[in-house]
């Protein structure tokens, strides 16, 4: 969504501008429940603008957490993870064609794949990460590291060549883990409707293979 810069930067808002921002923010109320087919890139662009310019303050909220809980029905952490996965884990093709449903499913998949040995992150190269809340992270790699500590430790031990590719941005931590054999290749499948689930599966498997899998399932 493109917004006029003066609406964002003006210290005093005209009533019409305030109403414009309010209506824009409140469009998010049904996003994750009724607009799951919307392009993920549109969502991320809008969400990043809200975060960057602290637009929740313009409609009476004192934090992104409060705004997110009421209107998105998700936490601030969830919103930031959506942005991280889209920007740093998804391929260019996924960013071009992925839907909100697929992005939401990717967040849940990432949560289920958390490495059981992951505790406080220690940089595999030897530098301990600072404790406490991490504020103002601007390096995408640093943010990615701290979201995948267990994977990076394992790569440092057994596949330092792949760790180097992660650090240069050539591979995501998840892709490196798959290549190293730590994880099985997995795709995010939206489960809001059968149609969306099938559409996502058809991006991975030929239709004939899926039909055969269903036939075998019925025969069991």
3D architecture notes:
- This protein is an all-alpha fold and 220 residues long.
- It has two domains: 99 residues, no CATH class; 64 residues, no CATH class.
- Helices cover 59% and strands 0% of the residues.
- It is built from 14 helices and no strands.
- Helix 4 packs across helix 6, helix 10 crosses helix 11 and helix 11 packs antiparallel against helix 12.
Summarize the SSE layout with pairings.
Blueprint: H1 5-9, H2 15-26, H3 31-34, H4 40-52, H5 64-72, H6 76-89, H7 92-97, H8 100-112, H9 140-145, H10 149-158, H11 160-167, H12 173-180, H13 194-201, H14 207-219
Short description:
The protein is mainly alpha-helical and 220 residues long.
